[in-house]
Structures are given as C-alpha cells and as structure tokens.
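Per your request, structure below.
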C-alpha cells in the first residue's frame, strides 16, 4: 500500500509554535526522510467557516497565509501537493454520504468537539457545520486515500472518529475506503504546547501564542513575559519544571539536550533565575525562527508564486478526489448512468 500523508490547517489566523511543534515538524520530517509516496497539505477554509460564517473576511485573509507558513518552514511544493479545501467540491459530496453513518449523540461525545464548543461558548447554539467537523475531516482524508495523518494530541479523538466512519462505510457498502492512522510527535512536550500564559493550550483565541511570523522584538517580549513557576520567588528557591511553559518549550525546541537537562536540574535544585532561563529560550527560538522569517519574506514579496503553487496543487488534488468519489458512488450504488 502507498504511504499517503495528508494534513491541513484552519485559516483562522497565523500559525504559531504549537503548530510547529506538533504537525508542521512532522510534515518536514517526512519530507526530509522521503518516507512517503504522496503528501497533501491544505488550507481548510470550509472548516474555518464553520465558526466564522459571519466573518468570512477572516478566512479569506488567511487562506494563503497558512500555506506560506508551511512553505516558510521548508516544505517543498515540488514534493508536496498544496491545495485549498473549497477548491475540491468532491469533498462536499463525500461529507453528505458520511453524514448518514454517524449519530448526533456520537458527535456530541467527541472530546475535542466538546472542548472547543466550551472554549467558544456555543452552549446549545452550536453551528451544525462545526459539530460535524469530524465528518468533514473524514471526507478530507478519505478523498486522497490518505493513511498517515500527522497531528497533535488534541486531534486524536477526531482521527478516532474518522476511523469509525471508514469502518462503518466499509462494513456497510464493502471495502472502498483506506483506514488512516494518526502520527504524533515522539517528544511529549511537542504534542500540545501550552500557552505563554500557562494555560493548557496555545490558542489564537486566548492570545497566548508566539507566531511563526513574529519579529525578533515581539518574540523577546513574549518570552520574557511568559508564565513560570509562581512559587519560584527567589533565585535560590527550588523551581517546578513539569508545569512550567518555559521548560516545556525548551524540551520541545532545544537541540542541545545536555544544556537543557543541565538547566532543568539547576532550576529544580535552586540557584537559577527565571530571567536566565527565558534568555536561553529566546536564543533557541531565534535560531529556529530566523530562517523561517527569511523564507517567509521571499514568499511575501512573490505572491504570484504562492498563488501558482496553490492553483496547480488544487487542480491535482481535485483529480485524485474525483477518482475516489467515483469509487465511493459505485460502491454505494448511486452511479445510475454510464
């Protein structure tokens, strides 16, 4: 069986370190190792509209931005197919077929959906499109026969439900869909990066992100203002590193593991101040973000190149999705004419 990778980003804002630590670096790892046959990366604008239907300009502004973020980390359009979700109408038809295979109660039990509904304060006023996000994701994945899906921890329940949909379809109509597997970072800190304010998850809506597009001074300001151990009042006090965002970020991004372990041990024993640790984290992030900024500047000044990449990729992706849709229609029995 081919190794087909698919992953995407909701264009609801700029991508941040949380995206880089989890899914983005996995994409780059697969590209570097050339351990795949096909890879698709898309801007999930239709899914972005599920909770931004009344502010579509927010999505429009960011559709190409998330692709530029992907290109800026080093993803190669000659090796990866980039596309825009709304440019593949076949996904809508697949979603319609899958809607009939999932109950409302099952959707409401999905932990990721429940958490995001709470975050957005939807309560009982849940947009149907938002609630059916796992079904839409099943269409995205199966439309390309994707079997490797790089994700962060928070997306695992979504992928588990996608697998349920695939199994139900195959059991009902016969084998037609490929069952995907999710892949998460080996480094636990990378799976769900906390916000700079110490909250459980880095989130655009919470305003606790360091973005890939942040300049040097902005990164410094955010790092120096990060939440640490509130009980580490004096430098000589022993400090907690387990729930400390500064050390979690270092664990996720520091290449010098000996240096990281040394700082961690010193902080836990006492005698190391927060400022010194934050200064080192800033250096680590700057070394990582500087080449990303340089690539980003190139694509920002050559929008026609980005547009061509997405246009060509969307055309290619639609051809593949059309083949899969035809197979699905035949399996269900809704191909009425030759």
């Amino acid at each position: 069986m081919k190794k087909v990778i698919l992953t995407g980003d909701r264009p609801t804002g700029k991508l941040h370190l949380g995206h880089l630590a989890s899914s983005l670096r996995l994409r780059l790892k697969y590209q570097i190792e050339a351990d795949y046959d096909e890879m698709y990366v898309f801007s999930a604008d239709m899914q972005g509209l599920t909770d931004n239907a009344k502010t579509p300009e927010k999505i429009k502004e960011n559709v190409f931005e998330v692709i530029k973020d992907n290109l800026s980390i080093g993803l190669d359009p000659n090796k990866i197919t980039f596309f825009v979700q709304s440019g593949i109408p076949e996904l809508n038809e697949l979603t319609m077929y899958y809607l009939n295979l999932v109950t409302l109660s099952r959707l409401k039990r999905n932990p990721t959906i429940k958490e995001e509904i709470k975050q957005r304060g939807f309560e009982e006023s849940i947009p149907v499109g938002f609630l059916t996000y796992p079904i839409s994701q099943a269409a995205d994945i199966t439309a390309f026969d994707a079997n490797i899906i790089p994700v962060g921890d928070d997306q695992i329940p979504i992928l588990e439900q996608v697998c349920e949909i695939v199994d139900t379809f195959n059991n009902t109509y016969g084998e037609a869909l490929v069952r995907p597997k999710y892949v998460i970072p080996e480094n636990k800190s990378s799976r769900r990066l906390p916000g700079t304010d110490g909250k459980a998850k880095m989130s655009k809506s919470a305003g606790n992100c360091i973005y890939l597009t942040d300049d040097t001074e902005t990164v410094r300001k955010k790092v120096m203002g990060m939440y640490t151990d509130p009980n580490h009042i004096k430098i000589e006090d022993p400090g907690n590193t387990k729930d400390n965002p500064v050390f979690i970020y270092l664990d996720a991004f520091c290449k010098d593991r000996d240096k990281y372990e040394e700082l961690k041990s010193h902080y836990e024993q006492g005698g190391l101040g927060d400022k010194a640790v934050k200064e080192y984290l800033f250096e680590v992030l700057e070394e990582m973000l500087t080449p990303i900024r340089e690539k980003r500047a190139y694509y920002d000044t050559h929008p026609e190149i980005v547009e061509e990449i997405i246009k060509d990729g969307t055309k290619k992706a639609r051809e593949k999705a059309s083949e899969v849709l035809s197979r699905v229609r035949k399996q269900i029995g809704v191909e009425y004419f030759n």
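The chain is about 55% helix and 5% strand.

Regards,
D.
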